[in-house]
Amino acid sequence: MKANAVRIGVIFLVSQLLFSCSQDSDSGYYNNPATYTESNTVRCTEVILLIAPYTNDGGAKKFVVANQISNLNISINGSAIAPMPSYIVDTLHLRNKTTVNGFRVSDDMVQFAVEANVTTTTGNPETAGDYASMLNNRLTLDPGSYIFQIVSFDIMQANGTLKTVYPNITTSLEIKENYSSGYAGTFEVSVD
């Protein structure tokens, strides 16, 4: 009788161990943009911005219709951030698309949302030292003011070629305490 109770107890413990581990669906990849400090405060590691490229048609703004902008180069306090694309925009259902100045355009504003992870450019890491350098170059932004620049980006023209645009935009970026993201703003940018 005592041996059966021990067997049942062992089976119960083993089954609890097996079934409690089967509930874990985490892949082991941690993709939370927040960086926490020892004082349990959140550090900013990404910047959000919206870009609305346009061209002029007889003095009227016509907004560029494209799937996305690519190779967006920004800098924060003079530190270049790794180039990134915008999110893809579904422009299929925009009305009254025409071609002006070599771009597909619309009267409706098309905004490209960008979520810029604040990491400096380090190339393609291949060695442990390269990865260590990449981790050391990861920026976190303390609360306060920063100089934010949009250096350049690429956008698709009507003929399928990319045009690099240099908008020359410099503005201030305010980072709030305990926010993992900062908002740089919405920018209308001429592609002419």
List keywords for this structure.
192 residues; alpha+beta; 5-stranded antiparallel β-sheet; 2 helices; elongated
Please provide a written account of the structure.
A hairpin with a 5-residue loop joins strand 10 and strand 11. The chain has helices at residues 2-21, 128-136; strands at 35-36, 42-43, 46-57, 60-64, 69-76, 79-80, 98-100, 103-106, 112-117, 144-156, 162-165, 169-175, 181-190. 15% of the residues lie in helices and 41% in strands. The radius of gyration is 25 Å and the shape is elongated. The strands form three sheets. Strands 3, 4, 7, 8, 9 and 13 form a six-stranded mixed β-sheet that branches. Strands 5, 6, 10, 11 and 12 form a five-stranded antiparallel β-sheet that branches. Strands 1-2 form a two-stranded antiparallel ribbon. The protein has 192 residues and is an alpha+beta fold. The protein has two helices and 13 strands; from the N terminus they run αβββββββββαββββ.
Number of helices: 2
The helix/strand series, from N terminus to C terminus, equals HEEEEEEEEEHEEEE
Q: Give the biggest sheet.
A: 6 strands, mixed
Low-confidence segments, ≥5 residues, pLDDT <50? 21-33
Structural class: alpha+beta
How many E strands?
13
Task: Determine the mean pLDDT.
Answer: 82
Percent range for β-strand residues:
35-45%
Distance between the termini: 89 Å
Radius of gyration, CA atoms, in whole angstroms: 25 Å
Helix content: 10-25%
Global geometry: elongated
